[in-house]
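Justification of computing resources. Each target in the renewal requires a structure prediction run like the one illustrated here; the chain below, 522 residues long, is used simply to show the kind of job we budget for.
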Amino acid sequence: MADNKVKHWADSIAERVIHQRGDKSKYVCASGISPSGTIHIGNFREIITTDLVVRALKDKGKQVRFIYSWDDFDRMRKVPAGVPAEFKKYIGMPYSDIPDPFGCHKSYAEHFEKELEDSIAGLGFDVEFIRQSEKYKKCEYKDGIKKAMNERKKVMEILNKYRKEHLSENWYPLHVYCEKCKRDDTQVVFYDGNYKIEYVCKCGNKAEVDFSKKGIVKLPWRVDWPMRWAHEKVDFEPGGKDHSTTGSSRTTGVEIVNAVFNEKEPIYQMYDFIGVKGVGGKMSGSTGNAFSPKDVLEIYEPELVRWLFAGTRPNAEFSISFDLDVIKNYEDFDKCERIYFNEHEANEKEKAKQSRIYELSCPAAVPRNMPYQPSFRHLTNVVQIYENDMKEAAKHYKAELANKNDEKRFNIRAQCAINWLREYAPADMKFRVQKTVPKNIKIGAKEKEALKLLAKALKEKDFEEKELFNEFYEVCKQTGIENKQFFKAAYLVLIEKERGPKLAPFILTIGKERVVKLFDSL
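Resulting structure tokens:
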């Protein structure tokens, strides 16, 4: 680990966990969400914030259990965008018992759970996924439920402090999924003080249940969360801005875990919202206004995704860019990597800061040697020159690809460049190298003469970039045309656009044979 004089925020939280929770043989860090729809990148901030603290604890030599809870025993509240409208009939049922709307998984819950689990597999999370439906159905929380039920007056008192409309005196902190209609349109009407309850449902069903034997009950969220803190002995769990205000589920959770379950609340870190540059509003998986981790990983390689979060404090709002700033993000990450490997000069403070960010950005162990860094900006040109043919594009870099790791970095980054160009790049970044001179372009006689002179020079000599750049001005002088006329003509012939990438390196990348063929045919 880098010898930091300025602590990284994850290291500061890790130290707080150790100090406040004491020296333990194993620490438990948690996060989780309800699989109500696609897990968007804003939700993802919770799991990666937890992971970075897990990494920091491990770097201090601590054993850590990282649990991620799928709250799939939660009721469906509404039908999200992208899900058939007829799924309205499942409102009130647990996500784990609703069929997959797309027909590819065992349940609605599993569809969205696997969507996230599969997409983040390459990010290096050493995480244990827990499906709360399994825990509840196996009656693993029976004693926690019993405690909450017996302390319902205390629970009510805490919750009522923050409610405009107080809970009724006959309220119980328990939802029951009706055995007949499978919904939670139920009300507990009797509790024996042990494990037996009686409930009535709006469908007309009335039944007695022993919740130590039949897993059809669930604590409401504000009681469920602190119960699980106590059950799993959670030491750290972050929460979103909406969970962090006075009277929020965090506020009541702390009071309930202390007063009802006789446990200390976990160390907490609020994380702020994430935007997507060019997309307004808070993201929501239920409205369809969401970018998933999979979407982000199609544009940013895994190290860069981790770097975006490791380099930003959790309580700072930021946006993930899909516009031209993608190029800048790659350049900034590459600089961070070079600083770590002493390939870029930085003062002591900046070296320590960037090195720690880089360590936390690596999905696995930090590489022993500096990885290969193909310029993302240059890749966006190369992959277009070779019409997105990865094998042909790789040949252009053949001399630079020394080993399998270099090839892996190239392949991932080149594919990200292809994806970005296809989905998000501005129109002026996109081009296609012409095979023949476009028929609809208009070029003057002097411009044609200049391009033919350049073709002649290319045939006679192998140019370096700077020499070729100087040659452009020579042919302009010889033909008496302005530089801007020459460049415009060259781009029109090469890519049927008036502007394009820097011309000298562009011509060298295309290959002089292709360029000469086009210019000679004018």
